[in-house]
Structures are given as C-alpha cells and as structure tokens.
Task: structure prediction
Amino acid sequence: MKKKNNYYYRLTVGCLCLLMAHTAKAQYTTSIELISGTPNAKIKAKMEKNGGALLTELNNAQGEARNLSLGKIEIDKSAVSSLTTMWEICPFRCDELEIVERCLNTPSGGYQIRNIPAIMEPRKGERFDEDKYQELVLNFDASGRISDLCFAINKNQYMQIMRTGLETTDLRRRAMVIEFVEQFRTAYNRKDLDYIRDIFSDDALIITGKVVERKSADEVGGYKLKSDVEYKVQNKEQYIDGLTRVFGNNTRINVVFEDIKVNKHGTKDEIYGVKLIQHWNSGSYSDKGYLFLLWDFKDENKPKIHVRTWQPYDETPEDKIIDIHTFKQEK
Result:
C-alpha cells in the first residue's frame, strides 16, 4: 500500500512539474476573424494572419517579460518603431482568445480593425494607478500589411461621432478626425515629440493651464486652501520645449480621451473642432480637464492643429468651455 502511495505521489509531483513548465512557456494565442468589409478573400486572410500574429506576440512577450519579436509579422518599419517605444513604456496584452469584428475602410485607402481589448501591465516595481483596460485599433495598408497600432477611443464614442455626420464627405472627414485624434493621443503615451511637433502648425496658438492651491483667509480668521488656475499662452516651440522636459522627467505618460465631440466649421469645410475631456497621469503630475483642438484638414495627408486649449474640469463653468463656436467663423 505504501509503495502504491509513493507511486501516486511521484506521479502527482511529475504532473505538477510538467504543468508548471508548460505554464512558463504557454502560448497565449489570439486569433482574428473578420466578418465583413474586406474587398477579397486574399486581403482578408492576410489581415487576419498579421493581426492575430501581432496580438499573440504581445500576449507572449508580456507573459514572458521580454522584448517584442516582430520579424515574422508583415508590419511597417514605422509601426515597429512606434510599437517598440510603447512597449518600453508599458507592456500590454489582449485578454481575448478570438476577436470577431468588421473590417472598416480608412480615408487613406487602407483598412482598420477596432474594439480590440487590451490590458496594460506595467513592469515589475512600477506603479499604475489608472484603469488598466484600454482599447486598441489596428490599421492596415491596402495590401493587408499592418501600418499602425493606436490606443483607441471606445466603441460607443466612435459610433456617436460617426452617426453625427450626415453627408458622405463629412462622414469620411469624421473618420479621418478620429484616426488622427487617436494617433495624437497615442503620441503622448509613447512620448513621441517628433509626431507632436509635426502635427502642430508653425503658428499654433497653445493655451495651457495648471491648477494650483492658494491660501486665502476665511471669515473666522483661519486659513483654507482654494483652487486657482494659472493660464499660459505659448507658441509651438515654447510648448514643445516644456513637453520635452515633462517627457524627460517621467518614465510613463498616460493620456486618456473621453466625451469627444467633433464639429465642422460653419463656413470652412476643411476646419474641424474637437472638444473632449482629457485625463493626464504621470509620475509627477495628474489632472483632468477640457481639451479643445482646432484641426485644419486642407491637406488631408498632413492635417495641422492651429489651436490647442486646456481648461481644468472642476473649475470651468459649462458656459465657459472653449469650443469651435468660441472662434469667429468668418466666410
């Protein structure tokens, strides 16, 4: 009887060891199935293969605490560089075994897969006080090759913005606005100064605000703290210089956009205003505020931001929030 118990003990230990070894080298596979939207079966298969391979590599690299290995995936060099930078700041993984989504056409002639769930997993020892859940968007060129990966606005926000556009041209522009807003947000998260410098026009007006605490005497003679706001008007280079210092002093920047509203200029079809709530979190500073961006899509391949304003969320009355109607709409 004792011999039999020893046998089962050894068998149990052996199984546990195998299970542990398997877990350490487990393959966390995520596949993609496109249910509509691709022009033909060849491009559909290529997008599913490349997209699934990328998500699977994200899962495994995060689980094994290693760098990304993208050599066997059809992906643009610029996308590899961008993704590598994002990975160095904070790795992430897809929590789903299968992504079933429609393929969307992009204004640039490529394709897009949205609503890809991602879980942010900071490196060991790093704090992460924000919501770890994010959504990704995968962009592909006309051949099905991955051209970009960005942090996305959520599905409800996307549908709300797209439903607002009534004309075909406006609908296409709104899709373009969303694409660049998502790239703009992701550029802050990966601390991409070159992209941010390029997206602002040379004569951009930038108004930044900072909430400060000031002491003021109350009616009983004691002291209390009240919030105040300091605004600073900057040109492009001043803003970039300040952002350079912020990026250098913080290992990780996490910027989240919500409650996004897109409005076309009343008389200029190429001008759009984007109003949103921005959550900014970094190691040294966090805030929440109303962000307004005035975008010029005269050159659709290289749109520019002419105005960027920020106002604190709690201290700004609703009728004082800057939007496209704040600016004179000349003919």
User: Anything to note?
Assistant: The two ends are 96 Å apart (CA to CA).
